[in-house]
Amino acid sequence: MARGPGTRAGLTRTAVLDAARALLAEDGLPGLTMRALARRLDVAPNALYSHVAGKTELVDALLDDHLAAVHDPTPDAADPVAAVADLMTSTFDVLVTAPDLVPLYLQRRGARGENAIRLGATMDALLARAGVPAEAIPTARNNLIVHAVGAAAFATAEGADPTAARHAFVAGLGWLLAGIVRS
Amino acid sequence: MARGPGTRAGLTRTAVLDAARALLAEDGLPGLTMRALARRLDVAPNALYSHVAGKTELVDALLDDHLAAVHDPTPDAADPVAAVADLMTSTFDVLVTAPDLVPLYLQRRGARGENAIRLGATMDALLARAGVPAEAIPTARNNLIVHAVGAAAFATAEGADPTAARHAFVAGLGWLLAGIVRS
DNA sequence: CAATTAAACTGGACGATGTCCAGTTCAAGG
DNA sequence: CCTTGAACTGGACATCGTCCAGTTTAATTG
């Protein structure tokens, strides 16, 4: 049962990330610790550093991987405004799925990973097709992202009513989109 | 120079909070540690626990105290919608002042402290005077708070352009208010 | 004014965290 | 087959928040 030094355990980067995801789902953010992760993989804590640069890099990867679940609408949809609404709603729903991660999006700025970049790009394209002038697109995108992430943060805060928070998110999204297309 | 056990150091809860605020301003959130705080006050780390329940309570107090700087508009202003806009803009500006605290507002839900309650109450009164139906006020308030705090979080993230972020905040605030009064 | 009580502190420790420095062993490539 | 480099373990380091005794001082009581 005891593995000596040098013996392989067959770890993979994706295995580490999967275990981290599971650990996060089971025990929350405070439960996600390098040692607990190693324990779950039956490995010494240091072994993780062969597959991950450190905890922050681990978390960053988790954050962006999570965004992969966002439903990417067809960029040539008939109604681009409705498509943007769908995109943001899907983002909100996905974020709410992992409450512990939401504050981290604010802390680490949610724009680094490739999934975040992809979502931003399709959003820009949809906004352009909706008639938003090019120089106004950054402002519009900023507001929409702030709204989705901020609403998710409030929706997942303890003591919040999830359904009421979602209703508020949808209402605010409509108001923002109305203002954006009118500008 | 060395103080034996039992000798008083003359600490106060407000002295501890002030030192914590200064420490936060100088060294940021990672620099705000119980031990560093004690060092700054020339006191053993445990001494702090005579004036503060723990670090989370310390941070919560810091958060709410920070909101005291928000300019509270006269609740009987001529234009209630403009007053709400001023309130939210002042909140945004105050939040941006302490970048490290902003993510914590999302984490700990920004509604517990007395200052937060006070701001929420005046906001509700202004919205009512603006003609917003009572059952729609919670949704409106939720969206406005989300917008202010979320925009502040994005504005203070590293790599963000502060002036552009503020412009985006003002634009989004206008859109939200337009939608709120029209509902 | 004297005696008791409660609070403010110090000393020292505990458990836990992220991470690094050696070693050891296995798997693959020349 | 041999060599090289990566995957591991063992053990340690610094640091964190917090608690348990003690000790002394200030406030309160009779």
TrEMBL record, chains A, B:
The cross-references to InterPro entries, in alphabetical order and at most eight, read:
Homeodomain-like_sf (IPR009057), HTH-type_TetR-like_transc_reg (IPR050109), HTH_TetR (IPR001647), Tet_transcr_reg_TetR-rel_C_sf (IPR036271)
This entry's Gene Ontology molecular function terms read: DNA-binding transcription factor activity; transcription cis-regulatory region binding
Question: What keywords tag this UniProt record?
Answer: DNA-binding, Transcription, Transcription regulation
Domain annotation HTH tetR-type: ranges: 10-70
Per the database entry, where does the chain bind DNA?
Answer: 33-52
Record-annotated membrane-spanning stretches: none
What is the designated name of this protein?
Transcriptional regulator, TetR family
Origin organism of this chain? Answer: Pseudonocardia thermophila
